[in-house]
Design a protein that fits this description.
rod-shaped, mainly alpha, single chain
Length: about 425
């Protein structure tokens, strides 16, 4: 506010100088130069006073006298406010101009740039840490557990065990599980055959089987002679040695009988895996187990345990620099590279802001009106004088100078005529 005051002082001094000059030249009217200067000072003084009156009349009554058509701004405050609001709404900040300016700005790029610049600050890392911990702490696990259990049940129920059985059958052969199973079986059989009590058991079973044969005549005589020679111990040893020989043959990789057993085993496994009744039975067993499973409590317990472990891990906040910020960097880099998506985001932002401006455009004028209405006449006049005072005071100075020059011309013309 220093400049308006200095200009106002200069305008006042111009009137003082003109008045002093006019008064100083009055005693010397007998001289032509004095009459010429007196006329110039007089005209300049009249022009300066007239402009002072006009400038003052804009804001207040000159000299406090309520002269008609003075104090124009206080009297026309409502008109001034309405004109200002109309100018702001319809000219300076109309909807079309705001929408046009917003559309020219790449708001999505500006937002991304601001995010990239701001997220590397310590304050941003601390904020991310706080938000992440609060998010983990506020997760409604009791409400999530039934949802997770229901989804698990649905996924397991929808899962068909048929392809799994077929895959297991193929893996049995490809991974050599059939050979391992056969070798394990043969090892167990060999171990059982080598036990001392096994021979007696086999002999007893063999003697019972032979004694039960129904034959007659010569065959009956031969059978009785054979039974008279044998007993449980001899019969058991014969059977055991025979079985041990068979086991030894099957344990040899090159023996054709081993390959035949493996081929038969694979065929049976494949047939079993592809059999409809087996698959349906396994699916039914699976579905019944799933239906009977009440897993809400166990799932909730595991989730609570996981939350405690996660919060313990997040305690020092180092995970933000290690995982969160690199993840955000990758996301922002991918987003910057996706120009199509970025353009769509920018369009959405512009549409949102434009819609917001259109819906609230009248509030701009209302805000101007409210701010103007908050000021009394004195404050409003002081504001106007502060913003326009310098130019208005120059009107006074220009009026005085112009009047002075015109006074010289008019006085000169009058002197010539006389």
């Amino acid at each position: 506010m220093g400049k308006p005051k200095s200009t106002k002082t200069a305008a006042a001094w111009s009137l003082v100088i003109l008045g002093a000059g006019f008064a100083a030249t009055l005693p010397f009217q007998q001289y032509g130069w004095a009459r010429l200067l007196a006329g110039a000072f007089e005209a300049g003084l009249v022009g300066g006073l007239a402009d002072w009156f006009a400038v003052t009349a804009l804001f207040r009554h000159p000299l406090g006298i309520p002269i008609p058509h003075t104090a124009l701004l206080p009297k026309n405050r409502d008109k001034l406010t309405n004109a200002l609001v109309s100018t702001v709404e319809n000219n300076l900040l109309n909807k079309d101009s705001i929408a046009s300016k917003i559309a020219d700005i790449r708001l999505a790029d500006l937002v991304l740039g601001g995010v990239e610049k701001g997220m590397r600050t310590p304050e941003a890392a601390a904020s991310i840490d706080v938000l992440a911990k609060r998010l983990v702490q506020s997760l409604p696990l009791a409400e999530l557990a039934p949802v997770i259990v229901a989804e698990l049940k649905r996924q397991v129920t929808d899962f068909d065990t048929g392809p799994l059985l077929e895959a297991l059958a193929r893996q049995t052969s490809e991974k050599g599980y059939d050979r391992r199973a056969l070798d394990y079986t043969l090892e167990q059989a060999e171990s059982w055959l080598l036990r001392p009590e096994t021979g007696y058991t086999l002999g007893t079973l063999g003697m019972q089987a032979v004694s039960g044969l129904q034959v007659s005549g010569l065959m009956q005589f031969a059978l009785n002679a054979f039974l008279g020679y044998l007993n449980e111990e001899r019969m058991g040893e014969m059977i055991r040695h025979f079985l041990l020989d068979q086991v030894a043959e099957l344990q040899r990789e090159e023996h054709p009988r081993r390959q035949a057993v493996l081929d038969g085993l694979r065929t049976q496994v494949t047939r079993l895996a592809t059999k409809d009744t087996v698959q349906e039975g396994l699916n039914g067993w699976k579905d019944s187990l799933v239906e009977a499973w009440e897993g809400d409590a166990s799932v909730l317990g595991k989730m609570e345990e996981l939350r405690i472990r996660l919060l313990d891990y997040m305690e020092d906040g180092s995970y933000v620099q290690t995982y969160i910020l690199p993840l955000l960097d990758r996301m922002l880099t991918d987003l910057r590279g996706n120009t199509e998506l970025l353009d769509k985001i920018n369009v959405r932002i512009v549409e949102g802001i434009t819609g917001l401006v259109e819906a609230n455009h009248s509030r701009i004028g209302n805000l101007v009106r409210e701010n103007v209405d908050k000021m009394d006449n004195k404050s409003l006049i002081a504001l106007m004088e502060d913003k326009l005072g310098q130019d208005l005071q120059w009107i006074r100075i220009n009026g005085a100078v112009t009047g002075f020059l015109i006074g010289i011309v008019l006085t000169g013309i009058r002197m010539l005529i006389q």
